[in-house]
């Protein structure tokens, strides 16, 4: 059995709800601490609070904005990843944006990231989105490779102020036709 088949059998991708807030916060904080070590200030990563993020998730899932979607990847051991998306921050007509997509390290490489991205794209397309984008840190080479493998077209890096005021560079990946993702 291949790894991606194993992921299909042992992992589910489902809409997240307010009751998932604590588990989503755990995945978010752990993924940030492991993914962004060396890219973001250590002090910022150490200060991240699961309780604060749980409150944010609960609020967002209790009162979602128009056309927002949050999907959770769930295994026997619990929630192991998630994706959130909605209308693009640039407010481009018909463009959706994946705001976050994170997996715990132990389930990376099993096809769950692809399933979360495809599921979110499918839900956003059903709400009228015609194109899709996601931004990643320029130095997050693993994520960049993932989006390139899935056909995302990279734009030139752009400077952004990150946590703690650090100057970071983000790369936007775009799929002009969302149907190529789904």
From TrEMBL:
Pfam families: Acetyltransf_1. GO terms for molecular function: acyltransferase activity, transferring groups other than amino-acyl groups. Keywords: Acyltransferase, Transferase. InterPro entries: Acyl_CoA_acyltransferase (IPR016181), Bact_Acetyltransf (IPR050832), GNAT_dom (IPR000182). Gene3D superfamilies: 3.40.630.30. CDD domains: NAT_SF. Residues 11-174 form the N-acetyltransferase domain. PANTHER family: ACETYLTRANSFERASE, AMINOALKYLPHOSPHONATE N-ACETYLTRANSFERASE-RELATED-RELATED. This is GNAT family N-acetyltransferase. It comes from Phenylobacterium soli. The lineage of its organism: Bacteria, Pseudomonadati, Pseudomonadota, Alphaproteobacteria, Caulobacterales.
């Amino acid at each position: 059995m291949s790894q991606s088949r194993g992921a299909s059998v042992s992992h589910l991708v489902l809409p997240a709800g307010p009751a998932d807030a604590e588990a989503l916060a755990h995945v978010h904080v752990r993924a940030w601490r492991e993914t962004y070590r060396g890219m973001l200030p250590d002090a910022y990563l150490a200060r991240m609070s699961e309780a604060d993020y749980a409150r944010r998730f609960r609020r967002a899932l209790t009162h979602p904005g128009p056309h927002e979607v949050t999907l959770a990847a769930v295994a026997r051991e619990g929630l192991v990843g998630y994706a959130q998306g909605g209308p693009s921050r640039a407010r481009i007509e018909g463009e959706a944006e994946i705001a976050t997509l994170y997996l715990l390290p132990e389930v990376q490489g099993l096809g769950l990231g692809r399933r979360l991205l495809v599921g979110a794209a499918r839900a956003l397309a059903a709400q009228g989105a015609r194109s899709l984008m996601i931004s990643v840190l320029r130095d997050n080479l693993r994520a960049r490779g993932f989006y390139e493998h899935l056909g995302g077209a990279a734009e030139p890096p752009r400077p952004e102020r990150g946590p703690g005021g650090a100057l970071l560079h983000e790369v936007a990946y775009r799929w002009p036709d969302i149907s190529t993702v789904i």
